[in-house]
Amino acid sequence: MHTSLNPIDSGAGLGLRLPHLAEVMATRPRVPFFEVHPESFLANPHATELLVQIAEHYPISVHTVGVSVGSASGVDHTHLRRVKRFVDRINPVLLSGHLAWSTHAGAYLNDLLPLPYTEESLTLLTRHIREVQDVFGRPYLLENPSSYVGYTDSTMHEPEFLTELVARTGCLLLCDVSNIHLSAHNMGFDAHAYLRALPWSSVGELHLGGFEVESDDATPGGTVLVDTHGTVVDESSWALYEYAVERLGSQPTLIERDNDLPGLDALIAEAHRARHHAGVGTRAAEHAGLPKAFDVITR
Amino acid sequence: MLSLDDLQTLVRRAVIDSEVADVAPRLVGGMDPRHRLAIHRRHYHASLIETLRGRFPATAWLIGDAAVTTAAAAFVIAHPPRVFCMAEFGETFPEYLASRPGLDSVPYLASFAQLEWLIGRVSVSVSAPALGLEWVSQQDPERLGSATLRLQPGVVYLRSDWTIDALMRVFLSGAPPAQFTIEPTPRWIEVHGNRGDLRLQSLAVGAWHFRRALDEGLTVEGAAEAAIGVDAGFDPGAALVHLIAEGLAYRVTVCPP
């Protein structure tokens, strides 16, 4: 079993989806780690059996999509126990979820819905993240959302909210660089300023994913970026990734692809691009005199 | 300021039921943020309808993709998921589908869709090492009746008034004939899935009741009584041997003397 991840020594990790399980088992591609959604495996014992075998050869990151820490009606402990049993079998190197809510009064909305950034939300999420971390006995990495809409009730900005959550719970952050780019475009903020405002020492993983550009019915003549994970990573996300690495240092990085899945080879080729972009960010950091962890990726 | 619970209630109504008016004043995002919330509404409906379409391809083959899609669109509003794994969403869709206007005249639709649901569920099961036939020969006949057997997790039982198993085989063959007649003949169906493999068979009425009773936790004696109740000529000993020989049992508990 693997207990740690190199920040980024052979490209990025990949989201591992069910159609690629058998090929990964058969070909053992050179990928530093795989990330899985437990909700895709909990009702599929055969796929879980294959994943347990894959976990003997690769570090695995578990990225939950159904642990709804932002739900006012509470975290579903039945689901949490199922995920816990899965995690105990896989023994992942990372465990993460989303700054969002998906359930309400027993209904699961199969989406990551936005939260208002208020003291009430902060108190609720603090309680729920502590519950999750107590159940799993490990830090939970919280991913920044992709946003199309927010609330008039919000009293703080997202980085401020995340920083406070980290301080109150000891959770870590999963910084989705593409989500920052997308949300900045949609909600009209500065992506670079957002990145600078994050508590860097608490970021444990980076994500990159593709999005679609659509005409924005909310703003005639404008565009809205929709987080589909159905295309390659956009150049603007790669540029922001370089900036993130420059500021943050190298971190385990994952390419997410959930829809219109290409062949495994194409995904691996894209994942290897991350090494190039991380190198650009690292050199920029060295040029700026920034120290330390960046050395790890240039070994 | 609304409580978070009240706000999420309004968003939920907007996403599932398209009731946007109450939440609209609370939103920011573009000049008319209702359209931004519509991205979430679109995702909810599209992803769940796609989930159901992906779960019932044989049913769509039978009645047409449009009929399944239309029913799915109504189902996701009337019955939002209460499960977190999309593979588990849609268990009650067969009955809902069969009750839709225009489809309620297809008497075998509910059980055919139910069979498809069960096939999807058990085909990804993982069988445990099965009991061998030597187990039967080693048992004290006096105590065999008190034994309870655990059947493989990928085994399920379904009864239908129509030959839906034959219809399903036609679909699974990938080469449907120009014409197929489904018969109003009772079928006692067993489905056994294991690691992507599937065995679909129609059992005699006694064997079906015997196996289903064992699967529900009855003792061998209790299961035999259930079978003899529907088939006076049922032979429990032979049925037990067949069950073991097919690898369907993996654990046994025998009460101490």
Structure at a glance:
The complex is a heterodimer of chains A (about 300) and B (about 260). By secondary structure, chain A is of the alpha/beta class. Chain A has a single domain (about 15-299), classed as TIM Barrel.
Describe, in plain words, how this protein is organized in 3D.
The complex is a heterodimer of chains A (299) and B (257). Chain A has 299 residues and is α/β, with parallel strands linked by helices. Helix content of chain A is 39%, strand content 18%. Chain A has a single domain, classed as TIM Barrel. In chain A, helix 1 runs parallel beside helix 2, helix 4 (119-136) packs across helix 5 and helix 7 (191-197) packs parallel to helix 8. The longest helix of chain A is centred in the last third of the chain and has 24 residues, at 264-287. The radius of gyration of chain A is 18 Å and the shape is globular. Mean pLDDT of chain A is 91; it is low at 290-299. Chain B has two domains: 1-106, no CATH class; 126-257, Alpha-Beta Complex (Outer Surface Protein A, domain 3), CATH 3.90.930. Helix content of chain B is 50%, strand content 12%. Chain B is built from twelve helices and six strands. The longest helix of chain B is centred in the N-terminal third of the chain and has 22 residues, at 34-55. The model of chain B has no long low-confidence stretch (mean pLDDT 96). At the A-B interface, helix 2, strand 5, strand 6, helix 4 and strand 8 of A face helix 1, strand 1 and helix 2 of B.
Task: Pick out its properties.
heterodimer; A: 299 residues; alpha/beta; TIM Barrel; eight-stranded parallel beta barrel; globular; disordered C terminus; B: 257 residues; alpha+beta; Outer Surface Protein A, domain 3; two-stranded antiparallel sheet; 12 helices; 6 strands; elongated
